[in-house]
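Researcher: Structure for this, please.
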Amino acid sequence: MLFDSLATNNGALASLGETLGDYSTQGKKLGRDDFMTLLITQLKNQDPLNPLESDEFAAQLAQFSSLEQLFNVNENLEVMRVNQDQNARLQALGFLGKEVIAEGDTFSLEEGGIQKGRFISREGGQCTVTIRDSNGNPVRRLLLGSLQAGTHTFQWDGRNESGDWSDPGIYTFEISIVTGDGRMLDAETQISGRVTSVNMEGDSPLLYVGDVPIALSQVLDIRIPGSTGSEPAQEGQDE
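Model: Predicted structure, token format:
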């Protein structure tokens, strides 16, 4: 009887081992149906004279219940993720043609165009704007003079230090502020412009102001073109 019991249990273990081995060699992961199949196989092949202990069986059922709950949570999270992706794409399309203010320090210059930039100064002081080309070379420096703490805008006419038009392309700007006691401060830079296109490729949609990509997470404000509330840009003086 003892050998029969061992043979029966060994058969159950062998059956389970073959099933697990198949999943291991095929690189599969056990799902809820697989877990239930293993549990039923174990019950079918158990020794009638030495059945599975009730507490052990209850523990396995509890594991299956927990597994079922985890699968339901994962499925719900996946549904939420898909819905969020769809909402983000619909939201991105709604930005087309709108004026946005976003975090960043990059703008796209068109031939003969004028660009505006924004920044937030935490303290007042003498402010200088440096425009750089895509290689990081300084193209123009604008002196905005003494400014108070707060949000400010500036305007660049697209010309370099020699007064010639700069080539169309991507440019960046940086802000330096010198306080009354001689401290050098940075500022929080922002860009503004009209959304001309939306790229739906990739995990998250991208807005484009000219050739500059903007993630939805960078957008700080959105306005209808021509609406009130725009701030007059400060004209900088050449250094």
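Researcher: Any notable elements?
Model: The chain has two domains: 2-93, 99-238. The helical segments are 2-26, 32-44, 54-93.
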